[in-house]
Design brief:
Mean pLDDT: 83
Radius of gyration: 25 Å
Number of helices: 6
Shape: extended
Distance between the termini: 71 Å
Structural class: alpha+beta
Helix content: 55-70%
Low-confidence stretches: none
Order of helices and strands: HHEHEEHEEHEEH
Strand order of the largest sheet: 2-4-5-7-6
């Protein structure tokens, strides 16, 4: 028995040593991955800044040139092409930078109390100005004033992304509706953007939240908008998904935690 016990002890000692070595290797690998992610984020941030600076100059001076010089229709058309494509590149850079900051946790959120009706109505007004087709964009009414503790800028970024995405896939005569309601059971606000467009096949619905995923390559965009929405909402403590029960187009739904003000808790 003593011999058997000794053999077992030596075996367990060897296994413990192997386990310790494996643990150290795993820790080194995890550290290497963290450094790689950090270096990637730093590279993307620096490159985005360096590329954005000359692009801002191209956009600004091409616009100034047309405004100050008597240009022909052909020259104006060329300048519009320069400006449009420069703005698309700027949007791509901003989107890549946002994804990088969200993944690294460096994107700061500034929370404050925000009145939802006015905030959402302003987003609807902005989206109406950006539309190029006859599409009815509306906020589901009536709505009672509601104060939500949120980052108004990030909330607007998510909703505007969803509204603009709906604009791309909704035909003339269609409609886009922004709505929200309180989920008392889960203590969250449920926002939804519903369109009467082409819809999304059920087997593709999870793919749309992946980076650079585009279901239609002929539609302008970076393929990052919905990925940014998902990362932002998750950082805010919520989630986003597609309503599989809606069949007349597409309906994106996302949750946002609610917090009661001190006056309401008393």
């Amino acid at each position: 028995l003593i011999i058997v016990a000794g053999i077992c002890f030596l075996y367990l000692k060897r296994q413990a040593k192997k386990l310790m070595l494996s643990k150290r290797k795993l820790q080194k690998a995890e550290k290497a991955v963290e450094n790689s992610i950090r270096n990637k984020s730093l590279f993307i941030s620096n490159m985005s800044h360096e590329i954005r600076t000359p692009l801002n100059a191209i956009v600004g001076f091409s616009s100034l040139l047309i405004d100050t010089v008597e240009a022909t229709d052909e020259q104006k058309e060329y300048a519009d092409i320069i400006q449009t494509n420069s703005e698309l590149l700027l949007q791509l850079i901003s989107d890549v930078l946002d994804v990088s900051r969200l993944e690294s946790g460096k994107l700061l959120f500034k929370y404050e109390w925000c009145e939802l009706v006015n905030h959402c109505q302003n987003m609807i007004t902005l989206t109406r100005k950006n539309r190029t087709r006859d599409i009815d964009v509306r906020l589901q009414m009536p709505k009672e004033p509601y104060m939500l503790y949120t980052d108004p800028l990030r909330l607007q970024q998510v909703i505007i992304n969803l509204l603009n995405n709906a604009l791309k896939f909704t035909p003339d005569g269609g409609s886009i509706t922004l709505d929200y309601e309180i989920d008392e059971e889960d203590q969250c606000m449920l926002f939804s953007v519903t369109d009467t467009g082409s819809g999304i096949p059920e087997d593709k619905q999870e793919l749309v939240f992946q980076r650079f995923e585009k279901l239609n390559e002929f539609v302008q965009g970076t393929g990052l908008g919905l990925a940014i929405c998902k990362l932002t909402i998750q950082r805010m403590g919520g989630d986003i998904w597609i309503d599989k029960n809606y069949k007349n187009g597409a309906r994106f739904v996302f949750s946002h935690p609610i917090k009661k003000r001190e006056s309401e808790e008393k």
